[in-house]
Amino acid sequence: MIGLSRARFPKGASGPQLDALARAPLWAAGMDYGHGTGHGVGYFLNVHEGPQSIRPPVAGGALVALEPGMISSIEPGLYKPGRHGIRHENLAVVIEADRTEFGEFLAFETLTMCPFDRRAFEPNLLNPEERAWLDDYHANVRAALSPLLADADLEWLNRHCAPL
Questions:
Q1: pLDDT > 90? residue 99
Q2: Average pLDDT of the segment spanning 51-80
Q3: Max CA-CA distance within the chain?
Q4: Of 16, 17, 24, 65, whose CB has the highest number of CB atoms within 10 Å?
Q5: CA triple 61-25-142, angle to 5 deg
Q6: Residue 15: how many CB atoms within 10 A of its CB?
Q7: How far is the CA of 161 from the CAs of 6, 38, 55, 67, 112, in angstroms?
Q8: pTM of this prediction?
Q9: Which parts of the chain are beta strand (E)?
Q10: Among the listed residues 26, 25, 43, the one whose alpha carbon sits nearest the alpha carbon of residue 34
Q11: Are 108 and 92 in contact (CB under 8 A)?
């Protein structure tokens, strides 16, 4: 999830081109998940609303370019049948990132403001960039929500948004 959330990609890239960014750490460990990584979220309020999706390529499937303003879920997971599963999910909007001599680049800006359940993390498996992204994410959640909370609720938020 962190790899895809941090991605910078050229304008014109599609979800199937980006899907491997979320799957690569699992593939490296010989694992995978059997569902898409993300889907569009739009004004019709359907569960999976396109035209974009982040998933492995499908033969004959259209490659819809991600464009600024598109909102997608980012929700990789892992399920071990009969044992357990995990899925972290955020919504993100595609934004303009920068322009280089190679063209325009886009990125995701996370919209979801909720702390992750720390019980699902093994901090030793995160590299410094992933750890920094997670700590920055939690700092942003804390900054956005703490003015709205008090007492025990604020203590809970601060505890769950503390740096790793």
A1: yes
A2: 92
A3: 55
A4: 16
A5: 100
A6: 26
A7: 19, 25, 30, 31, 14
A8: 0.91
A9: 8-10, 38-41, 53-54, 71-74, 77-80, 84-87, 90-100, 103-110
A10: 26
A11: yes
